[in-house]
Amino acid sequence: MLAVMRIKSLGLLAASLLLMTVPVAQAADGNPLEKTNGFYVDPDSNPAVWVSEHPNDKPRVDMIRSAISTKAGARWFGNWSGDVRAAVDSFTWAADVVDKLPILVAYNIPGRDCGGHSSGGAGSPDAYKAWISQFADGIGGKPAIVIIEPDAVAQLACLPLKEQQTRLDLLRYAADQFAQKAPNTWAYLDGGNATWIAADIMAERLNAAGVSAIRGFALNVSNFHTTAASTAYGNEVNANLSRKFSYTKPFVVDTSRNGNGSDGEWCNPSGRKLGTPSQVGGGAEMLLWVKVPGDSDGDCGAIRGIPAGTFSPDLAMGLIEGK
Fold it and tell me: Which of 85, 164, 178, 270 is at 20 to 30 A from 211, Cα to Cα?
């Protein structure tokens, strides 16, 4: 994903965000934590597949199995997922059968990653609406956690002004789809990280993108900031939501790679470490492994030549050993 540089919002956009008061649908109060018994471990995650295919790569295979592939984390869905309704239904059904709570990421917004290492996304606003509607249909009444469109809100200002409003409209549509179609899902709209966008601006953007319709917002996705820093930022965002819009929201923190905190780098940096495995509580509503540990951020950083989203045992071992 693109660098976590601070992006200044345009004055006109900020004013429009403050004025947006379009009503949004409210999600049913189905608590997925009460309907499941722990988080779902994806048996087909990239680390799990690597472990199964490299049984003789000792001791790395044992270390990656113990530290990563047997831990609960998210599965990402995007334009690579084929029939997204079928893919989401299959994943959430497998979790439901074993009474576990799956974590999903919707990552298909048009102009994804602003042309960076994870560029792509749906080809048009209408295509995205169809895709995210099918995503929500795939979950239906099954319990789930969904992270909506990492970076899409924080990267708003990389788009022309007209396209910024289109993106906000699409995110509001996505929020409404989960509110209306997935009553036992807690959906969280991505809200960047602790050093990217000022908390008052992020609160305005989240409100404009429809966070009031869903459970809350997510922080630190695919980044490295400590849980303490992320929690402080989330509380600051909520203080601004309360002051400006008279509500607050729960938030979750991606802890998959934040064990050593951030050194300011964002793309495959060395010296990072696994963080607290997925759990309820811990400062935020939940701490979740959203980014798959060992999956590359792109052809950059300490490990070159590995496309974004591709698993690297070298990256995984670096996170295990903190090197």
Answer: 85
Taking residue 132's Cβ as centre, other Cβ atoms within 10 Å add up to 26
CB atoms within 10 A of CB 257: 28
pLDDT above 60 (res 7): no
Is residue 32 over pLDDT 70?
yes
pLDDT, position 113: 83
Positions marked active-site? 113
Contact 322, 276 (CB under 8 A): no
Instruction: State how far the Cα of 129 lies from the Cα of 124, in Å rounded to an integer.
Output: 9
pTM assigned to the model: 0.91
Q: Is 3.40.50.300 the CATH classification of the domain at 11-321?
A: no
Give the residue with greater pLDDT, 111 vs 25: 111
- For 232-289, how does the pLDDT look when each residue is reduced to its tens digit (9 = 90+)? 999 999 999 999 999 999 999 999 999 999 999 999 999 999 999 999 999 999 999 9
- For residues 237 and 13, the model is more confident at 237
- Name residue 256's amino acid: S
Using H for helix, E for strand and C for coil, what is the string for the chain? CCCCCCCCCCHHHHHHHHHCCCCCCCCCCCCCCCCCCCECCCCCCHHHHHHHHCCCCCCHHHHHHHHHHCCCCEEEECCCCCCHHHHHHHHHHHHHHCCCECEEEECCCCCEHHHCCCCECCCCHHHHHHHHHHHHHHHCCCCEEEEECCCCCCCHHHCCHHHHHHHHHHHHHHHHHHHHHCCCEEEEEECCCCCCCCHHHHHHHHHHCCHHHCCEEEECCCCCCCHHHHHHHHHHHHHHHHHHHCCCCCEEEECCCECCCCCCCCCCCCCCECCCCCEECCCCCEEECCCCCCECCCCECCECCCCCCCECHHHHHHHHHCC
Mean pLDDT of the chain: 92
- CB neighbours of residue 87 within 10 Å: 18
